[in-house]
Structure formats: C-alpha cells, structure tokens
Amino acid sequence: MSPLERAEANFAWKLVLPTIAVLSLLILYPLLYNIYLSFFDVQLNGDKAFVGLGNYTKLLANPDYYSAIGTTALYLLGTVVGTTLLGLAMALLLKDPFPGRGLVNAAIMLPYVAPVISVVFGWQFLFDPISGVFNYLMVDVLHIWTERVNLIGDPDSALGVVILFDIWKHAPIAYMLILSKLVSIPRDQYEAASIDGYGPVGRFFHVTLPELHFVLATVILLRLIWNLNRFEDVYLLAPNVQTLPIFTYYQAFTGVIDQGLAAATSVIQLGVLCVFIWFYIKKVMKW
Amino acid sequence: MKLNTLTLGLLSAGMLVSNMTYATTVEYWTTQTQSDRIQTIEVMAEVFEALNPGIDVKIIAVDENDMPKQIAAAAAANTLPDMIEVGSNLSLAFAEEGIVDMDATSEVVDKIGVDRFYQGALKLIENPQAQKYVAVPYRGWVQGIWYRADWFEEAGLEPPTSWESIEKAAEYFYKPEDNQYGILVGTKADSYAEQCYTQFALSNDAGQFDRDGNLIFNSEAQAEVLDYYKTLAKYNPPGPQTWRARDYYLQGKLAMFFYSSYILDDIALAEAAASSLSSENFSDLKGASFDPDLAKNTRLATTITKTSPSTFGTLVGFSIMTNDSKEEVAATQAFIEYMNEKDQVVAYSHMAVGGHLPVLKDIAETDEFLNDPKGIFAAYGKESIKEMVAGFENIRNFSVVDGKTFPDSGEIFAKQIIPRMVYSATIEDKDTQASLDWAETQMKQITDQ
C-alpha cells in the first residue's frame, strides 16, 4: 500500500468512525449487556446475583423449550416457503401490464399494510366456532361439515392457521420484491431462449429463476429473520402456538420479570440466527 | 344519583363553611379514576364537609395497579393517607406490613354493626390472629353461573348450584348440531379460565396453601376438581373458550356461562348488547337480534357447592391507615360511617350497576338500591338481584386462608399457571395427574424463591 493509499484509508476510517461509534452504542452495547445479564439472576430492584450457566441449564432442562423449537421450525418452514411461492406466483401472473393493475396491486398490498390487531380480530371473527361466517358456510349453507370447529383455537389446526395467516399477510412484500426484479429482466434474454428452443417452462427455469436468484435469497433470508422473532401475529391470533418468542414471553415476562432467563433465551436465539445467516450467506448466496 | 334538595341545600351551606380554615383533613385514596365517578364521590364528600364543619376530605385517585407502589412510597416518606379504598387482598397485605390501624377500622365495623354485613365479606378482611378487621367492607362484584331460567324451568332442571346439577344441565342443553351449547367454562390460557376454575376448586375445599403457608395444590381434591372441569369443558363450544361467552349467551347459544355481575347491563340494555350482535350483517343467523326478555329469563347462581359453598368475587373496602393524630383518625372514622349511610351506599352502587354491589344486607334489600336510574335491576326482578348480592355470604379466594394472605398466590396468578394447566388438561387432553404435577412444579419454582 502506497503512503497515499494508506492516508486515504485512514481518512476513510475517520469518516465512518462516528457511524461505527453510534451503531456500537445502539447495537453492540445492548447485545453484550444481554449476554452479560444471561449469567445473572436479576432482581427487579437492580440487584444481580451471578449464577454462571444456571439460566442456560434451567432453559435447556425444560422440555417445553424443545417443543417450542420444533414448533418454530415448522412455523418457519411453512411461512417462508409459503410466502415465497405465493409471492413468486403472483409476481409471475401479474408482471405484464393490464388494465386495472394498479388497483389489483393495491388490493394485494392491503393485508400487509393493515394493522395487525385489526386483521387478527377480523380472522378471529371469520373463524369463530359459533357465529363466524366460515363455520356458517361450511355447516349451515354448504353442509360440508356436520360439526362446527374452532380452527384457530384447536391445537391441531392452530399452527396451520397461524402459518396461513402469515402467508396471507406477508406474501405481498415477497410479491413486491420479486416483481420489481422480474420487470427488469431484459426481454431479449427471453427471445434468445425462445430461439434456442425453450418453451415457457424452460424459459422460467433457465432465464427467470437464475435472474431472481438474489432477490429470492433476500426474501427468504429476511423472512427467516423476521419470523424467528415474530411475536405479535402469533400471540394475538393463537397464543397456544408456542413458538420461541411466545415461549420466552411466558417464561420471562409473565409475573415477576425474570430478566436473566429471558436474556439466556435470546442469546441462544441470537446464536441460532447467526448460524443461519452465516450458512445462508456463505453457502447459499456464495457472497 | 339520589341527592335530595335537603342535601343539596346542605351542600351549598358547606360551600360557605369551606372558606374557613380546617382543623382536620381526611386524605382518601380511591381506586376510582374515571372522572364522572370521582365527581360523584366529591359531591358526597362535600356534603359530609358541610355536615361536619372543620373536616376537609381530600380525594386522591390512584390507579388500582399503582396502589401498592404508591403506598410503599408514602409509607417510606411517612405521608400515608388517612384511608384507602382497595381490594381485600391489599388491605390484608398492608395490615401485615403494620400500616393499617386495625383498632380504628374494627371500631367502625362494630359501630356500623357486624350483623349488617354479609358474613363472607367480613371473613375476607378479618385478621384472625388479632381478631380484628383490616378494612370496612364497602362494595364488590360476584361471579357466578348465569343461566337461562326459562330453559331450566321448561326442562324441569334444578338451578346450577351444585356439581351434579351443573353437569346434568350442561349435558342436557348440549346440542352442537343446533349450534347450542350446555355451558361455557374458560379453557383458554387466560384469567377467565382461572376465575371459573377457582370457584370450583374452593367449592371442593381444594386450595393452594394451607394456613401455615405450605403449598397443597396437588391434592386428591384438586384432581377431582380438574376431572370435573374437564367433563364440563366437553359441553363447551369447540376449542379454547374465554370472555366471548358473553356474546354467545346474548346470541342465545348458551344455557350457562360464567361471568361477573358487571354484565348486568349488557343483558338488560339493548344498546349495551349491540356490540355482541350482528343482525344487520347476518339477518338469518339464529339468535342474532336483541332478546328483550333475556334479562327476565336470566338468573345468576353465585354459589356453587360440593363440599362447601363457594362464591368467587372481589371485595373492596376502606382501610384506616396508621396515624399519630387522633383527630384525623376520628374524622376518618366519621367519614367512613357517613359513606355507609344508605344514600351514599346507593349512590356509590349506582355508579357501576352490578359492579359495585353493596355489602350491607339491609341496604341491598331496599327499594332505593334496587331502583337504579336505568332500570337495570328491575329488568331482572328484585328477588334475583337480592340472591346475587347474597353471594357475599360465601365469597372466597385462593390467596386468603383463614385471614392470612399468601403473596405467592398473586405471583402464581401472574404466571398464569392455573390457566395454562386448565388449557392443557381440557384442550390438549393432558392427563389430570400430569397436569397437576406440572402446575405444582411451576408453583414450587415461585414458592422456593
């Protein structure tokens, strides 16, 4: 490195230093403090007693924790695959201009922009076992079912409903991201593929999909991160679906707040998330 | 509100007096924070001031949840109020901390007349070691099973007051093919489930703690309760159920459900019930319009009996706090006595019809009390209101055993251990003993701390 280059590099560091300092303060400090707290039994008045790995062993000895991990895995799989496929399908269907596309786009975005509390209540009323429209249609009008069911409440179907809800609510953002890339793929690539003898399916696999690789990877990665930490949708709709955030809430934030245990749970969750991201970036995205 | 011209005259006289310097101030902390209710209490206090020149009543509204914190701060700063209006558990807890003047409070109870109170209400605020009262019971609400008296009569069934009669009726009215259900007991993991469950547990003498503070939750009696509760839950609408019971009942889908007496106006008044009904949108949905006869056909069974009668509810009373000034204590006693006169009790009760039931037997039976301005009580008939208020005879809860409070019980409540146990037992079909073992383990984590 020449002296000039070195001076430039130093100058560059100086320019980004304030940003690094602010980010460290806002992100690194709470992160490290959280790890620190996870080794203590924290009282509400601020008193701390060092318990070593006590919080971790308490957590790992709890069978409910593993069941929460299982539920979370299913939830992640269902929601990430579902939103990505639905978003992709909608983008492919709606990529060519047609009259009223703006209106359709707005309608598609509606679930995503609507406040979660209002749509959750909407779903609860729709699926209400006694006076909900869904049961009314299935039992009284169409006679498909003989008995009314509580789809949201029943533990066997609750996870399915929660996944469906997430797909319905978040597919629009996948759709938007995928569509924006889709419309920018040059037409001549498709023409060239056609000349090479590819039909619509062949063109999809050899032109569209490779072009979408990065945007799909981004959608999947973002959805994984968001949904691993998703609390409000699940808790409001069906609190009996115990994903990790709900489990953490019951463990740590009901009754007297157990900050040490909560910190330990989130440290493990952060670790898992980091592994996820590392694997994804290095192996899948090959960045 | 019922304040006659005489009292209004006295009130204006009081205004004149209020310009003078006061010798004594009664600082009164209330958990009523809504402005219209505070105004009502202020008017009552002003009348008292007019009648008692030289006493100033200072009303301070404190949020219910902030009360323990505020009292702790005031005790530390030696600025405790003269009297507080709080739930019975808090009164007992404050008395154990030594900041309630039990002698002065008991004197007021004696003066008003021990026999005039519902006995269950007095038991909830009695400190048995000291044989004194920690509060003057004032108002409360009771929970119970609201049921369709007309359906019961038609079917020739007994009112749901015992385990047998409840189960029999629940089974009889359970007709899921007609979208009609026998009963609704809480099965979702929230406080509603805990309230329903607690009443059954106490009716079978299955408590959380014994009088020495030992955790005795995992018992044979408790297993009986949970088994019974699981049976009842079979006659519930499908899936985990909670507060929406109110809506389903108004829609005519339930024969019985648990709720507090706060619901009185919803059943009796069309405008209060409107949010539960959906006739505009689904005109052919059965039971979607307001049933004007519902109040008349509804009764509340407040007491459930298995091995002993139990009513679940909340009792609020006035506690006189420790104070060196004898004048202030005397003034506070006078004010509490005044608040227990009929006009004041009635005015206070009518602020929240059904939510503020009086605990003085003779007043609960007067026409003045039973004729509320909106005519809600009248819609049920006076007899059924009297029955409801009489639930205070047997009112009980988990955290008080022989007058001793166990603060751990509050923490067990906050951790939602019982609702979660109820949920897994009824909805996930978890074995009764396994559910109790789980709950006990969770409770021990709290009591061992």
TrEMBL record, chain A:
GO terms for biological process: transmembrane transport. SUPFAM superfamilies: MetI-like. It is found in: Cell membrane. It is a multi-pass membrane protein. Pfam families: BPD_transp_1 (PF00528). The chain crosses the membrane at residues 12-32, 73-94, 106-126, 204-226, 261-281. Its main location: membrane. Residues 69-280 form the ABC transmembrane type-1 domain. Signal peptide: none annotated. GO terms for cellular component: plasma membrane. Belongs to the binding-protein-dependent transport system permease family. This is Sugar ABC transporter permease. It comes from Alginatibacterium sediminis.
TrEMBL record, chain B:
It comes from the Bacteria. Its main location: periplasm. It is found in: Periplasm. SUPFAM superfamilies: Periplasmic binding protein-like II. InterPro entries: Bact_solute-bd_prot1, SBP. Residues 1-23 form the signal peptide. Keywords: Signal, Transport. GO terms for cellular component: periplasmic space. Belongs to the bacterial solute-binding protein 1 family. This is Extracellular solute-binding protein.
